[in-house]
Amino acid sequence: MDQEVLKQLKAGDIVLYGGVTFISKAIQFMMRIQRAKQGLPIPRGTIASHAGTLVNLWGQIYIAEARPEGIVVSPFLEKYRNSMESIKILTPKKTYSISEGERISKLAIEDSLTPHRYDFFGIWFQLKMTLTGKWSGPTGDDAERKLYCTEAVATWANKIRPGTFTKEEAAGPLEVEFNKYYKIIYDGSKIE
Q1: The pTM is what?
Q2: CA dist., res. 47 & res. 87, Å (int)
Q3: Which residues contact 42 (CB under 8 A, 6 or more apart)?
Q4: Domain 3-191's class?
Q5: Which of 18, 114, 152, 159 could form a disulfide linkage to 147, CB 3.0–4.6 angstroms apart?
Q6: Once rounded to an integer, what is the mean pLDDT over residues 9-38?
């Protein structure tokens, strides 16, 4: 990744990634259907199926992600150095203040220290929502006990700026990528 891009990264930025696991491929399939239903362009390459929030830990950029083992915080570059062409990075259009960046970092890191099971059923509810347009999964505090990746990203963002995501428990990759409060600053190998 270009040093110029690295200098721009800050706590609260969101990383979208297209994975290669079976679950990632299933999510990508659902996102293709949802894009078609919404009249959005369907990219030829990888479609995002995973998300994480960048956090500041010890003055370094880390990524907080909901994974099958829970909320995991790891050094961003160590994790994504070899797959930079498969990611998008979004930043709030209204830049987070220093205190907002500190708060989102603290929220995500605290969640990594509290047992959170991955919400595999959330993927099922996402499929149902893709087909029906209605969310039938858990909401509110019930939804926060188990998180899937894009739900975690939306939950943390809403705790900093309420209303950023209208239904954080139902947020999928498209709701993150096309959120009106964010802009893409990195897409594969180019800076926006």
Answers
A1: 0.80
A2: 9
A3: 32, 35, 36
A4: alpha beta
A5: 152
A6: 80
